[in-house]
Structures are given as C-alpha cells and as structure tokens.
Amino acid sequence: MQAHFIYLLESYCVLIVFVSVLIDQLGIPIPAVPVLIVAGSLAAHGKVSGVELLAAAVVATTGDLTPELVRAAGPGRPTA
Questions:
Q1: Local structure of residue 49 (DSSP, 8 states)
Q2: Is the pTM of this model over 0.85?
Q3: Within a domain: residue 16?
C-alpha cells in the first residue's frame, strides 16, 4: 500500500503541487506548504523535476494574479 502511494505521489507530483497552490491562492483553507515540502524533498532526491515543480507553482500563483495584471495593464478607470 505504501509503495503504491509513493508511486502515485511521484507520478502526479507536479499536478498535485499545481492544484494545491491554486486552491490555496483561491482562498480555500487547504494549506499548500506541506505539499510543497514533500515535493521539494522528492525533487532533492531526484524523483521529480524541480523545474517542473517551480513552473507549476508559478503558473498556479499567476492564475490568481491575472485579474490584477489585467487591471494594471488596462485603461485607467477613475476610482472614487
């Protein structure tokens, strides 16, 4: 059972990191830090690509920042 869990974690680690960070950025109270710690240890042992993990975390965070980036780049609206 444990070997199967570790195999699944190694296989889907990038997807798990992406979903975990995205859920955390959306404000749902599920912490991403434990997932990032486990993913980092897998990357340190060469089981998962650290570059892919970093890209997944950045893309998930960027999805949360998209409205702010569009608002900053768009035409200015007067604020009250």
A1: -
A2: no
A3: yes
